[in-house]
Amino acid sequence: MNHIVMLSLNIWNYNEPWLIRRALIADLVCAVSPDIIGFQEIRHDVKRNVDGKNQAEQLAELLPNYQYIYRPAQRNADSDQWEGLAIFSRYPFKNSGFTTLSRDGSDSRDNHQRIVLHGEFDIGGNPFHFFNTHLSLSREARKRTTREVTAFADRYSGPKILVGDFNEVSHEDPIRHVVEEASFCDGWAFLHPGAAGLTYSDTNRYIKDESETGGRRIDYVFGRDGTTIERCEIAGNTASEDGHFPSDHFGLVATVSIGGTT
Asked: For residue 15, how many C-alpha atoms fall within 13 Å in the half-sphere facing its CB?
C-alpha cells in the first residue's frame, strides 16, 4: 500500500500583499511536505506578473522539487489576464488534461468560466488520478457542474482524489451529490464528524464581509475507488509574525493510502 500527502489551497490570486503571501505559501508547502498539490485562483496578469511569470511559474521557482501543470479557465478578451488552476507534483505526470464546465450566461453569479484539471500518475505501478477544481459563485451552477465534475472523474479507472474550492457547504445539494450519488468520501467529515472544519473563516483577517461571520467549510478533499483518506487537517490557518496569512482560504492537507477502500 502506498501513502501520499496532498494539499489543496486557493491562493487568492494577486490580492495584496502578494510577495509576502507568495513566500508564506511556499513556507506552508515546505512545512506540510505534500507529494501533490492542487492550487486554485492561479492568475496571469501582465501588469502584476513578476519577471513575466504567472503565479504558477513564480511558485515553481520557490518549489524546485515539484513538476507542475497549469491551465487557464477564465480569460479576458485580449488574454493579457486569466485565472485558472495548477497541479504540482513530486511524481512525474503520466498524463494530464482538463474539461470545461458549463456556464449559464443569463446567471449573473455564474460570471467566471470554470474547469477541472486532471493529473495522472504512476504510483506503485498503478494509475492514480488527481482532480482539481474551483466552482462557481452561483448555487444553480454548482448544482449543475458538480455532476459534470464527477462525470469527468468517472472517465478514468483507478484510485482518485478530487480537491478544490467548491464554494459550497457540505449539507447543500452540490456536495451531497458528490458524496451520496457519486460515492466520494468527504475526508474532513469522515475523520472529524461534527467538527466545523472552516476553510473560509473570520479567524483570517482578510475576510471583510460581515455575512461571513463564523466562516464556512467550502474547500474539500474527496476520495474514491481504492483510496483511503487517513488524515485531513486544516493548514495555513496561523498568521505570520507580521499578521499575514498565506491566503484568504485555509488549505487542507491530507494523507491518503492507495490500495485500500474508502
From this structure: 13
Residue 191, burial from CB neighbour count under 10 angstroms (0-12, 13-18, 19+): middle
Structural domains counted in the chain: 1
Give residue-wise pLDDT tens across range 187-238: 999 999 999 999 998 777 565 554 556 789 999 999 999 999 999 999 999 9
Query: pTM here?
Result: 0.95
Q: How far, in Å, CA of 96 to CA of 98, rounded? A: 7
Q: In terms of C-beta distances under 8 Å and separation of at least 24 residues, what long-range contacts does 193-198 make, across chains too?
A: 197/234, 198/234, 198/250
Q: Which residues contact 80 (CB under 8 A, 6 or more apart)?
A: 45, 46, 47
- Give the CATH number, domain containing residue 27: 3.60.10.10
230: containing domain: 2-258
Kindly state the cell numbers that stand for 180: 451520496
pLDDT in tens, 129-150: 999 999 999 999 999 999 999 9
